[in-house]
Amino acid sequence: MDRLQYLGDVKVDISDIQVVEHDVIVLGAGGAGLRAAIECSMRGLSTGLVCKSLLGKAHTVMAEGGVAAALGNVDSRDHWKVHFRDTMRGGKFLNVWRMAELHAKEAPDRVRELEEWGAVFDRTKAGLINQRNFGGHRYPRLAHVGDRTGLEIIRTLQDHGIHQGIDVYMECTGLDFLKDGDKISGMVAMWRETGRFVIFKAKAAIVATGGGGKAWKITSNSWEYTGDGYGMAYEAGAELMDMEFTQFHPTGMVWPPSVRGTLVTESVRGEGGVLLNSDGKRFMFHNIPDRFADETAETEEETVRWLAGDRDARRPPELLTRDVVARAIRKEVKEGRGSPHGGAFLDIASKRTAEDIQRKLPSMYHQFKVLAELDITTEPMEVGPTLHYFMGGIRVDADSQMSRVPGLFACGECAAGMHGANRLGGNSLSDLLVFGKLSGEGAAKYIEGMTSEPMVDDNQIRSIIRDATDILNRESGENPYLLHEEMEDLMQNCVGIVRTEELLMEGIEGLGKLKESYGKVKASGASQFNPGWHEAIALRNLLITSEAVANAALIRQESRGAHTRVDYPGEQNEWLQYNVVLSKGEDGAMKSEKIERPAPNTELDRIANLSIEEIEAEVTAES
Amino acid sequence: MELRNFRIYRGDSDGGEMMDYQTEVGKGMVVLDVIHRIQAEKANDMAVRWNCKAGKCGSCSVEINGKPKLACMTRMNEYDDDETISIRPIRSFPIMRDLVADVSWNYEQNKRIAPFKPDITKKDSNGDYHMMQKDVDRIQEFRKCIECYLCQNVCHVLRDHDKKDIFVGPRFMIRVAGLDMHPLDTEDRIPDVKDEYGSGMCNITRCCTDVCPEHIQITDNGIIPIKERVVDRYYDPIKWLTRKLMGKSK
Ligand SMILES: Cc1cc2nc3c(=O)[nH]c(=O)nc-3n(C[C@H](O)[C@H](O)[C@H](O)COP(=O)(O)OP(=O)(O)OC[C@H]3O[C@@H](n4cnc5c(N)ncnc54)[C@H](O)[C@@H]3O)c2cc1C
Ligand code: SF4
Ligand code: SF4
Ligand code: FES
Fold this sequence. Notes:
The complex is a heterodimer of chains A (about 625) and B (about 250).
Chain A (H helix, E strand, L loop, with lengths): L17 E4 L2 E4 L3 H12 L4 E4 L16 E2 L11 H11 L6 H20 L14 E2 L9 E2 L5 H13 L5 E3 L2 E9 L2 E9 L5 E5 L2 E4 L20 H8 L4 E2 L4 E8 L13 H4 L3 E3 L13 H4 L6 H8 L14 H13 L9 E4 L6 H7 L1 H10 L9 E10 L2 E2 L13 E3 L16 H22 L9 H16 L6 H15 L6 H18 L12 H25 L22 E7 L5 E7 L5 H7 L3 H11 L1
Parallel strand pairs in A: 1-10, 2-3, 2-11, 3-7, 11-18
Antiparallel strand pairs in A: 4-6, 5-6, 8-9, 9-10, 12-17, 12-19, 13-16, 14-15, 15-16, 19-20
Chain B lengths: L1 E11 L2 E11 L5 H11 L19 E4 L2 E4 L14 E4 L6 E3 L2 E2 L2 H9 L20 H10 L7 H5 L1 H4 L10 H11 L9 H6 L11 H5 L6 H18 L1 H9 L5
Parallel strand pairs in B: 1-5
Antiparallel strand pairs in B: 1-2, 3-4, 3-5, 6-7
Helix pairs in contact in B: 3-6, 6-9, 9-10
The structure holds flavin-adenine dinucleotide, iron/sulfur cluster (2 copies) and FE2/S2 (inorganic) cluster (FES).
């Protein structure tokens, strides 16, 4: 029996454990991890790619709507500056300026590169990559393939990557990083099938583990999203930033109960879908923030012209940023104008022909047909907010993607900075590609500059393994599934879409109790493919993630983007100058700090603050 | 909520058995929900693969009452109230544990297929390629594949005769078809299709097409045209040559 090997205080015999050596180890094989691994490999590094699921099944595969890039194929007025401006405005100006700049500038090349590697995007009439409208984007900007863009991207990267000499370790869970002094020297992981451990020796590690939505009850995220990257990086000494900004996507399914939270893509609204309350009113017209009033349609008639392609018509209010739409739906429900199961109605049936809907939104059609027995070409859907995305994450340098721990890099959803207080739809897939590549570059440069090879420390390895095996070896203890359920309820109720000091304090207190119980968690069964054990291991990271979100949310006394404090309504200028940063203190407790943001570069500041007329005139003059 | 009966395979590569479970089934539940419920209530260590819960990732392939299906897209109300539902792992691949099969063989096949090689002279001065929607419609159909391997599971070549060393199976036949029909691709894979990927092994029973959750016309739109290209090349060279001279046979 495997577990006997590690019983009680018996010394862990490290010489028995599999050891693998690479220059760089990439943790996570979604779009970000794959793109990072391809870059490392192209630069001649021996690269190991580790993922919890099978290759090709990461969250990226579920992305539907598209990837944002100012290609200008549908509206030639598009330009990186406009994309940058939209991103900053969507992020309520809290984005790391340099990251938003790099992203807007490099996204078009990253998308073209995918085509070079075999991706087949939908085409315009002229035969170019087609682009669709999405919330917060001024022009049709999302390159897409029907409503399965993520699948196209992950499969393209996967099919390209397997020929680049990358070694892939599937169904292998990273547990913790190893360090030599302050530098990364490797990682301990566990094969999910056998429960056996494996030591990765590496000069650098790139974290690309995605978010942590599984801390909430209603989420679009799968079991994989337990914030492992946050937990592991935090334990290794990295900082987490902007954790209070958790995006609630306005349109998740609300019925039947078993699919509550499953995403309904924003493309439904991009293709003309409208939100209605139980009185049949398009309530979004009454929820337009001042900042966006100039750029949003005032009447239904104007939205009809917009949908027909009239370039002078403004965008429908349903396509306002996600934070705005999610709060508006919540308000309708709270005030008694919700749909039968506590959401709003999303109607595309009366706006598009059945044929159009099936062609543009095939997987949505299929999803509702099978899971809700509802035909979206004839009936409205019921939708409500669902926890979807983490804007915050591991704090990294904007150009190299390195955290404050030498040799530890992060990219994709698990990294902070690019999206500020709120992410625009479609800006994640592009983020994965742009920063996946840059983190590969960053790691290559870091390794090039290394003078000595970092060593792994046996004591660190032993302690990581002991923490994991203790969960199995305890005589009795807390059930990990029940602890997880408690956490979901707590986060849903106390750290939800609207927050108050009282609720947050209650949440933090509850998390404290959960942490105590976690010290006694016990999984039954053996170590082979044991979901209870895996769940228990992930809980540590989910607890760190939740604690970081709750603490950061308590500190930020304003409402900005995805973070809404009813006791501190509205954006406060003073708070624009700070990020909340969390790290592990010397006493082992979580340390929260307000850190001053560097002033923006004047040119970027100028661009972001231009009016839409000014910026359009400027880019037209340039081209 | 009502109490329903299930039989679920429990075991590993050394063998196992169907075990009986009972659990409550509520409105709108799919088979994957049932599995999760049993896992949480009665069998914490029962292994099952899943990710998206919406038919997008192809992780949750199992056999339900003998039919290969995605557990997350199979609703409980497809079955009679008094029916006992049996769930077991897909059969063409070795069992790892409980409902999880070892599908790594498929990843090996994909590696054997020569990757996409675009004609870079077709790029315009902006770095863009031009392709018309109607010219990519048919390859986009193949690219809907979520790699659930249900088609691989039912193909009798891979299943009954264990001819895995001579046939890559329907999933990879459409992967090849998608590359070969790509308007920009320049690689010639036809010799490999015949000699390495074993196109001759398929006798067009269409079982693969019947189970594909993405409704890809695997046989008619993918395998048959590829088989024809092999025939043209090796048995009707004139036709092949004419096509070649007229431009690549896309
Ligand atoms: C339903 C849905 C629809 C979406 N639609 C869009 C869209 O249209 N446009 C858009 O831009 N964005 C969209 N998003 C967001 C976007 O898909 C994600 O933010 C993005 O895919 C994250 O990519 P990633 O590479 O950072 O991580 P992921 O793709 O989530 O990959 C994470 C990887 O890390 C691995 N991992 C995690 N922990 C460990 C561990 N401990 N050990 C080993 N491996 C580990 C996982 O196995 C996985 O391989 C959508 C998200 C969802 C859920
Ligand atoms: S049609 Fe061919 S590939 Fe498909 S199941 Fe039959 S023999 Fe296998
Ligand atoms: S072709 Fe269809 S059945 Fe086969 S793996 Fe792909 S999606 Fe599954
Ligand atoms: S869980 Fe993704 S297809 Fe079933």
